[in-house]
Amino acid sequence: MASPCEVFVNAEPKAHAIKIIELAESEALRIEKKFSRYTTNNIVYRINNAKGKTLSVDEETALLLDYADQCYQMSDGLFDITAGVLRKAWQFDGSDKIPNPLDIKQVFQHIGWQKVKWEKPYLTLNPGMEIDFGGIGKEYAVDRAANLIRQKYSDFTLVNFGGDMAAVGTKNIKKPWEIGLQDPNNMESGLIAKIELSHGAVATSGDAHRFLLKNGRRYSHILNPKTGWPIENPPKQVTVMAPTCIEAGMLATFAILQGSEAESFLAAQDVEYRIIY
Amino acid sequence: MQLKRKFSVRNQLTIATSALLISTFTPDANAALGADMQATDTIKSPKNSKKLNTKIVNDSDSFAISSLYYAEEGRVKVNKMQTLISNQLDDNNLLKTNFIYDTMTGSSPNGRKYIPNTSGLVTVTTASGNSFNTEGSAANPAAATWLTVFADQRLAGSVEWDHSLTSILTTTLGSSVSSENDYTSYSGTGKVLLELNQKRTAFTFGSSFTQDTIRPIGGIPQSLGVLTCSDDASARAFAPAWLNCDSTINSTTKSREKSINDYFIGVTQVWNQHTIFQLNYSQGKENGYLTDPYKQASIIDKEFNDEVEIAILHEKRPDTRNTQSVFFRLVNAPTDSLSINMSYRYFWDDWEIESNTFDVRFRFNLNNHFYIQTHARYNTQTSAFFFSPYIDVTDKESDNFSAPKFFSADHRLGDQTTTTGGIKLGRNLGDVGKVGLRIEQMRQRYTNNQIPNMKAWIIQMLLSFKF
Amino acid sequence: MRSLHPKKYFFVINCLCLFFILLTTACDYQRIKPWHRDILSQDRAQLVSDTLEFDADEHIYSSKEAPKGGQGIGGGGCGCN
């Protein structure tokens, strides 16, 4: 998780609050270690380097794969944990380096969840394919940490892992946590909105800083795994409130994948949201 | 655009998310996650795995102790000590051990007709001549003939074992023993708890069997047998023909038994973030010696010298009783500082007793540590078909003139109303446990009985520690 | 754009649920997820918040009144006077 992680606890004494923070920290570290694609010797590394061999995965990984599978179905294939390979063609550094369509075609054959053979607990990936829990992991970690805290403590706590957050606890709620939203178009301008969170979760998805610009056209880092090309006209930022962080995160991601239809998609979901274009 | 479906994926997503988070969130799963991580990750950090273990440890081991003082004005006093130890043996097994020590002294109504003036009454001794009955005298007005003085101790213990078979199914097995000088009770309990619908709905099915042995001092009296007759021969002339004052029945039976089978079905439903309700139906089948060997009944003729107690009999109850009850409870915590626990029970049995019981507890959290809880309870019941405060033989033509089949003057089987009001002050000690003190007053009114109304104080100290 | 008023949102839900309880008709209890149960997992919102208090009451009232039980099952008898 290459984003700042914060835990705010409204509790006394300090030692008690630290226990809560450590609980969240150890869970975040555990999930990062287990599911990060930047480390070797974890389950994701072994899956991505199986070279076509079938692997038997543990229960937690299986549950996440099941979840990813359901999200793939729900989004009609737009949410795809195998899409990460497209990064090999697309480098989103704010420059104008649009990849060669042939390169895209080259990597495109290595993506597509429908090509993956997943029969719990056995997973088989074609050689060259990779999975990436990046689209779920952070939100999952927030929910896991929040639930662990909830199970043991009732102190009012906000778990914030890189902008995806959940509030738990009922003790001493004087006022809800205030979460500021920044304008992604102008990071210097300060807050453009405030969200109050007393329980439930908030997640944000967007492409504010990662895009390519060529001939006045903005290429979003939100790639369509069905075409290999960026989604057209996605909102810059979508923020969703839901009972769990992972739900909020998926709805935000699904919405962005709808491109210009993001707003009408969210309006049908019976959740609170904010969209910034 | 790409996605033609504009309908809601919300429900689908919620279901998928629930599956993910709940499956990874049972205590078993926590343990399993730890195990999986060690099994699949080749790099193990001892520091990390230790951290993980501390998360799995369940802190529901606890030790609770209660000291109860129950005192009726001029009647029974009870001191009750209870300890309850809960041990979470592992993720799936919880063991609860319970010890109770009661001491009881005082006098309780024995069923004889209440006569406020204690002079000029028949002298009563039991068949064996023991001191369980006392004479009324001016020197000791409290020891009226309608009261029996007693002293006893009770020692009881029980063990209960909760075992989670799966994440939704928990079984409970329990057994308990209770022993008094003249009473022994053994019971066994089996329960199944089924949690469905993401643990929002829980069903409980239970059954228990109790076997009691009664060994009254002086033996089991002859049911409806004569305890004593009036010394006054002219009063005895008014005795009904079925009353045989000359026969002395010596008890030959030392003890009798009774058994109770209870069946229970209950459902608990989480209604919203603040509310749970519970609905139970229970059935009990009692068999055997259900009579109270210490309870008596007066035979009264109201026309002879205003009123005369012709004789005193032992009571007799049917040897079966079928009870049923419906119980409803609502728990609501509308705010952080207020919670309400209210219940209603409707009880009925084939002795024609019907009862309605209301119970309400309001709890106010004063701050992080202290809370005040108020308690109000109201119970009203109708009498058993064989209950009457005495056997009235004034009207020789009446039905009462023939020997009753069953008879009891025990006020607990008569029409009565019990009201209780009380307050509890509690302190939450956080990770350490909790303490509480409650003081309540209970009042009992007997509507078809002349015995004086009763007032009792309940003082209970509660301590609970986590370890 | 839609604005977020979480406090108002939950207040409305609470009111609705209370209303539905009064009507004893169906509230959307399906929406109450286990991770929503902060309050209900607290001591004060348990069916029996203190076992020993409950046990003491059971013992007192079952020995002073004709009805007994109804709340659960188990426990032994006594020859209480």
Concise account of the structure shown:
Chain B has about 475 residues and is mostly beta strands.
Give the topology.
The complex is a heterotrimer of chains A (277), B (467) and C (81).
Chain A: E1 5-10, H1 14-35, H2 43-48, E2 54-56, H3 59-74, H4 101-108, E3 117-119, E4 122-124, H5 134-152, E5 156-161, E6 164-168, E7 177-182, E8 191-197, E9 200-206, E10 211-214, E11 217-220, E12 237-242, H6 245-257, H7 262-267, E13 272-276
Antiparallel strand pairs in A: 1-5, 2-4, 3-4, 5-6, 6-9, 7-8, 9-12, 10-11, 12-13
Chain B: H1 10-23, H2 27-40, H3 46-56, E1 62-72, E2 77-90, E3 93-109, E4 147-164, E5 169-180, E6 183-196, E7 201-214, E8 226-229, H4 233-236, E9 256-272, E10 275-288, E11 296-301, E12 308-314, E13 320-332, E14 338-349, E15 354-365, E16 370-381, E17 391-392, E18 416-428, E19 433-446, E20 454-466
Parallel strand pairs in B: 11-17
Antiparallel strand pairs in B: 1-2, 1-20, 2-3, 3-4, 4-5, 5-6, 6-7, 7-9, 8-12, 9-10, 10-13, 11-12, 13-14, 14-15, 15-16, 16-18, 18-19, 19-20
Helix pairs in contact in B: 2-3
Chain C: H1 6-23, H2 51-64
- What is the correct CATH architecture of the largest domain in chain B? Beta Barrel
How much of the residues of chain B is beta strand, in percent?
over 45%
Written as H for each helix and E for each strand, in order along the chain, the element string of chain B is HHHEEEEEEEEHEEEEEEEEEEEE
Residue stretches of chain C low in confidence (pLDDT < 50, at least 5 long) are 1-37
Q: Unreliable runs of chain B, pLDDT <50, ≥5 residues? A: 1-6, 27-59, 118-142
Compressed to H and E, one letter per element, the order of chain C equals: HH
How large is the count of helical segments of chain C? 2
* Fraction of helical residues of chain B: under 10%
State the end-to-end CA separation of chain C. 72 Å
Structural class by SSE content of chain C: mainly alpha
Radius of gyration based on Cα positions of chain B: 29 Å
- Residue-averaged pLDDT of chain C: 63
Overall structural domain count of chain C:
1
Principal-axes geometry of chain B comes out as elongated
Most extensive protein-chain contact, per-chain counts: B-C, 105 and 53 residues
Mean pLDDT of chain B: 81
